[in-house]
Amino acid sequence: MLSVKPPKFISRCLRGVNFPQDWWWALIGIKALAALGLIVGAVLNNPSITATVSVGVLGYFIFAIIAHIKANFVGKEFWVNCLGMTALSVVVLVFNVAAIG
């Protein structure tokens, strides 16, 4: 739901990095696939699936960091939202990779 009508802090980020509003709908699919992959990996108790999905999620946030820097949109939204979610993605990936080994 946050991608259909994003709250102000998300729409500020999307506008701040000049992401075209006509493409905001694509984020719904990206986020839904990521969530589905994590759920499937958890239900099947397959850490390889969840680790693979976690790499994709981390990639998403790395590109978000690049977009913020390129747009020179490095205010509070960048530090809290973008880097915060990137850090959380790293933690999830570390746990998933640890579960494989």
Structure characteristics:
4 helices; mainly alpha; DoxX family protein; transmembrane; transmembrane helix; DoxX
Structure description:
The chain is mostly helical. The chain has helices spanning 8-16, 24-43, 47-70, 76-100. Helix 2 runs antiparallel to helix 3 (47-70) and helix 3 packs antiparallel against helix 4 (76-100). It is globular. The chain crosses the membrane at residues 23-43, 49-66, 78-100. InterPro entries: DoxX. It comes from Corynebacterium segmentosum. It is a multi-pass membrane protein.
What general outline do the C-alpha atoms trace? Answer: globular
Kindly provide the radius of gyration, computed on alpha-carbon positions and rounded to a whole number of angstroms: 14 Å
Largest sheet: none
Mean pLDDT across all amino acids: 91
Distance, first to last CA:
35 Å
Unreliable parts: none
- The helix tally amounts to 4
> How much beta, percentage-wise?
under 5%
Q: What's the SSE pattern?
A: HHHH
